[in-house]
Amino acid sequence: MSSSFVELNNVTLRYSEGDDLALDTTDMKIRKGEFIAVVGPSGCGKSSLLKLVSGLMPPSEGTVIVDAHEVAGPLKIVGMAFQNPTLLPWRTTLDNVLLPLEIVKPHRSRIRKHKQEYIERAKELLATVGLAGYENKYPWELSGGMQQRASLCRALIHEPDLLMLDEPFGALDAFTREELWDILQNLWIKRPFTVILVTHDLREAAYLADTVYVMSKRPGKILVARENTLPRPRDQETTFTQPFTDLVHELRSYIRDVRAA
Ligand SMILES: Nc1ncnc2c1ncn2[C@@H]1O[C@H](COP(=O)(O)OP(=O)(O)OP(=O)(O)O)[C@@H](O)[C@H]1O
């Protein structure tokens, strides 16, 4: 009996028959409530990994197991957020946050009867990320950082056990990005869900993750799984400490080697 929440066993991925592998034998074991980050050169298969774990793509070989079940189709226990917040422009912030509940099955039938309860939950989440008072604004009335906060709330409204983030802060300026690191860390400390974060930002990986996975060039493989035991909660001061800068340098040296390979 395995204690992992997400497990990839000898997984490979080829997008089409005759194509080169996008992912080569990949093994991962992620604990329940663990926050992991995946870094690696462009095109190494980071987003492909998310597609496999969320059940959007089946592996060509090997197995993907989430919550003790082999993944055989899109999972309902997943929340996702991407670099582009993709809020629907005709819906208010609150209605954008409520959107997954209208789509994800177990909630779809409940939301009609218990709408007020869900609205309260959405408002509470929005307040946690500093968006109280913006519930009735439209996306075009929000800054990029505010839109990304709303998209985090949308990813978490159905209380998913697994959160997948594909470069969620990549398009934001450095200050806003670091503010969002704290917001995400606080949400996770409050209700620990399992997180898979894909990022190009090594400081972001070092700030947020319990384990940082470094991938090779295509075909992607996990080369290093670096545990990060920096104490939590981490804050801006953490980023000036020697252990933090050492970790970032170490990650940078892995990436340098991968790129040179
Ligand atoms: N739908 C697809 N069909 C065919 N090939 C694909 C498809 N999606 C991705 N690929 C290829 O698979 C490889 C891995 O792509 P993926 O998007 O997972 O990489 P990535 O590490 O997330 O890249 P980036 O950091 O640039 O976002 C790339 O070479 C890409 O061209």
UniProtKB/TrEMBL annotation:
Span of domain ABC transporter: 6-242
Coiled coil regions in record: none
GO molecular function: ATP binding
Keyword field: ATP-binding, Nucleotide-binding, Transport
Gene3D superfamilies in the cross-refs: P-loop containing nucleotide triphosphate hydrolases (3.40.50.300)
SMART domains reported for this sequence: AAA
PROSITE patterns reported in the protein's UniProt record: ABC_TRANSPORTER_1, ABC_TRANSPORTER_2
Domain of life: Bacteria
Family from the record: Belongs to the ABC transporter superfamily.
Protein name: Nitrate ABC transporter ATP-binding protein
Organism: Thalassospira marina
Lineage of the species this protein comes from: Bacteria, Pseudomonadati, Pseudomonadota, Alphaproteobacteria, Rhodospirillales
